[in-house]
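User: I'm preparing a small set of examples for a lab meeting where we compare how different chains pack in three dimensions. I only have the primary sequence for this one, and I'd like the structure in token form so I can line it up with the others. Please keep the answer compact; I'll paste it straight into my notes.
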Amino acid sequence: MQGVVGVCEREAKKQGFKRVESITLSVGAVSGIVPECLREFFPIAAKGTVAEGARLLTRTLPAEIDCPDCGYSGEIHGAECPRCGGWAFRLRQGREFYIDSLEVE
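Assistant: Understood. Below is the structure token output for the 105-residue chain.
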């Protein structure tokens, strides 16, 4: 969360805004990042910064794969291809963690 707050601080200096009203984060379903933990630690990281008091919103990006064994391309909800059961797939989406948007004053 310190990195997210750091981006807010840098953008405030660069763009000239005084306060962040909300932050929307995109979090991949298999990124290992727990949105509840982000919400818990955000107020601590934001204290005394332009992000203090901002609403923190998260958007979960589903895990998506391309399977070379059967040609399946789409969402996955387990550890294997939902069509053929294969494990040789390429994860196309689901590991992301980034700031999607900032709403500022």
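A couple of notes for your slides: The first strand starts at residue 20 and ends at 28. Helices lie at 2-15, 35-46.

User: Perfect, thanks.
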